[in-house]
Protein: Zinc-dependent alcohol dehydrogenase family protein
Organism: Actinomadura barringtoniae
Amino acid sequence: MRAMVYHGPGNKSWEEVPKPQIIEPGDAIVRVDAVTICGTDLHILKGDVPAVTDGRILGHEAVGTVEDIGPGVKTIKPGDQVLVSCITSCGTCRFCREGRYGQCLGGGGWILGHKIDGTQAEYVRVPFADTSVHAVPEGVATQDVLMLADILPTGYEVGVLNGGVGPGDVVAIVGAGPIGLAAIMGARLYSPSQIIAIDLADSRLEAAKQFGATVTVNNARQDPMAVVQELTGGLGADTTVEAVGVPETFELAVALARPGGRIANIGVHGRPATLHLEDQWIRDITMTTGLVDTFSTPTLLRLVAGRQLDAGRFATHHFGLDDFPKAYEVFGNAADTGALKVVVTR
């Protein structure tokens, strides 16, 4: 089969590799019908995730059709169309029993495209299939379901829920890429009074307006602090969400929070960032970090199936599998191409 294989920082290849086989009783082999590229994949290619080694098939998001199952799989069968979640769950360890599937101790967590071969291929082996895939609701478009593999639960859980967004809040989201936009979409479910999107790219700020941001700030031309303070009487935002993963955006997210405010970090950081405790120790702030657990995926699937969330609007570019290198080029140059999420289909 063909797959997108990592060969060290800055080096990837769409090449022929062996088709995966059942290894454990709980495994499923899924034929990939649609797959996408994540900002985390770009971090991997920058060398920010050293656990990803030469020869690893990239990718952790897909919708596909079950081709084969191990003897221990009980909830799916060949022919079922499923969402392959970015998080794999053993279902029985301490953290899985608490719903913290991202911290799985039993061989799960974020492993696809990280510690084992991932989804950017014609086929993928999914361990712990009973607890790591979700049935695709009838009548929901494949590309809509694909957005629930990672970005929507990540923006919702790590941004909105960790950030404690509530009715009437002022929410500042630093970074209007796909994860920032997912946080905007999730925040709207809680009726904040203002959602402020901050980014350097006008194209992404325009997208932020379409997703529900009430105020946009291009911080190449405007001072985000001045904008947020003007909207809040000098206090700062109730919740800030860091959705980029570089030191400058983290430090900005902390600075924009009001006393007693909450800072939710989503970004994948490859370099140290400074937390200015000499300024922040007295301000009663709460800061959260997190890897998505995907406990919210069933809820989000119901909202998408009920047309309460328009997940398909993330998909801006479409490619066939053999155009995977071009898809990476377009997604990696999103500031110029306007790409939010690329959808690569069989």
Notes: The mean pLDDT is 97. The two ends are 12 Å apart (CA to CA). DSSP finds 13 helices and 15 strands in the chain.
